[in-house]
Write a structure and sequence with these properties.
It is built from 14 helices and 14 strands. It is an alpha/beta fold. The protein has two domains: 216 residues, Rossmann fold (3-Layer(aba) Sandwich), CATH 3.40.50.2000; 173 residues, 3-Layer(aba) Sandwich (Rossmann fold). Strand 1, helix 1 and strand 2 form a beta-alpha-beta unit. Helix 2 packs parallel to helix 3 and helix 3 packs parallel to helix 4. It is globular. The two termini are 15 Å apart.
Length: 395
């Protein structure tokens, strides 16, 4: 069975969404599916200029526009740029059509966002192929409540995304909270929505044990406004002024990085180590001991289950996170990780001080590793996908 995965972003991008996509297609190979990938005009290839790449046995078709200012980013773009990117829908649709015919694809699997769903739907109608749409977050929530114009944009994107789901044969969500929210929308009341949760490919993990005098805290991932990293820096600035000597390091890049650097200016125990490739991830985790994710509470963060905490558990690193919906789905406080109150510098500080005095961190890490092995495996997820595809073809 041949599946075409239509991705807005993918490796070499290292965001959680790209890593999920990488592991989806890799795991599907293991259950006798043939995944093929096409990426949007806004995603660069692994090797510059390549139109077709073979990565870990999977064929990736690249449609990159060649313009660096169009690359996937959280940075806001102007109206002219948005129009230019929207026009690329047409050429992207043609590329999908050609690949579906050439590769004799059985099922189209479009992944968020709507830029992937609408071209896939057009091709599915033309070639009479079933289409799935996979939703990973309510990304439009980032615009909500800022001002009148952004609220209008939020409403428009919400409607467009809902229509994209409605037009798909079936929908996949990454957790129960997200499914519940989607089911509350009028157009989706009768839509078949499956859940395929985030998971970890433990075969990729080669942990390196490094002994250090002081535990190193870290944030690994996209430097985004929703992550609460300003609170984390303020907490560590206070702790360092009070005599705590543990380092805080950041791996990643994003729109608020310059602001965070200003906030940490003069504190030599806070380091920013920049971007990293997927091939450097083992080395990154070997440099740190405790991963901390102080996400701010919002409807978006309550409904999204992040991938990085699961990855940290797989690397046998303690995970600390704010007590919000998306984190509670994967972390049981004091059993598989540590939860602290969201949006609170004092709560972060208190949790860090407790951890520095805690003697049974290994117990928590062992519980977390058992959890991902038993309940968060891409191997079992691949079987779920195969069943969904087969049922679609049998309808």
């Amino acid at each position: 069975m041949k599946i075409l995965h239509i991705l807005y972003q993918s490796i070499p991008n290292t965001a959680g969404s790209s890593i999920r996509s990488r592991d989806i297609v890799a795991s599907q190979l293991a259950v006798s599916l043939t995944p093929i990938v096409i990426t949007s005009p806004f995603q660069e290839p692994l090797v510059s200029g390549k139109k077709k790449e073979i990565i870990e046995g999977v064929t990736y078709y690249r449609t990159f526009s060649g313009y660096q200012n169009e690359v996937v980013s959280e940075r806001r773009t102007g109206v002219f740029m948005q129009i230019r990117k929207a026009i690329r829908l047409f050429s992207f649709t043609v590329s999908i059509y050609k690949i579906v015919k050439h590769e004799k694809i059985d099922v189209l699997h479009a992944h968020a966002m709507f830029f992937c769903a609408f071209p896939a739907k057009i091709v599915s109608l033309l070639l009479k192929k079933p289409i799935l749409y996979e939703v990973r977050s309510l990304w439009e929530e980032r615009y909500k409540g800022k001002n009148f114009l952004l609220n209008v944009l939020f409403g428009a994107i919400t409607l467009i995304e809902t229509i994209a789901m409605f037009l798909s044969n079936e929908v996949i969500a990454i957790n129960k909270t997200l499914k519940f929210e989607l089911k509350s929308r009028f157009l989706l009341k009768n839509k078949e929505i499956h859940i395929v949760e985030n998971a970890v490919n433990l075969n990729r993990i080669t942990a390196k044990k490094v002994e250090r005098e002081d535990q190193v805290f870290a944030y690994i991932g996209t430097i985004s406004p929703i992550e609460g990293l300003d609170l984390l820096i303020n907490a560590f600035n206070d702790l360092h002024n009070e005599g705590v000597k543990n380092k805080l390091v950041f791996y990643g890049d994003g729109v608020v990085l310059p602001e965070l650097k200003k906030l940490a200016k003069g504190n030599n125990l806070i380091e920013f180590r920049g971007r990293f490739s997927q091939y450097q991830i083992t080395e990154v985790y070997s440099e740190v001991d405790i991963i901390i994710n102080p996400r701010k509470q919002s409807f978006l963060t309550d409904s999204v289950t992040p991938l990085k905490p699961l990855e940290a558990m797989g690397y046998n690193k303690l995970i600390m996170a704010s007590n919000i919906g998306g984190m509670r789905e994967i972390i049981e406080d004091d059993r598989t990780g540590i939860l602290f109150e969201p949006d609170s510098v004092d709560s972060i500080k208190s949790a860090i001080l407790d951890i520095l005095n805690k003697k049974d961190i290994n117990r928590i890490n062992e519980n977390a590793l058992i959890y991902v092995k038993k309940k968060r495996s891409w191997k079992s997820n691949a079987v779920k996908y195969k069943d969904i595809y087969q049922n679609l073809l049998n309808e």
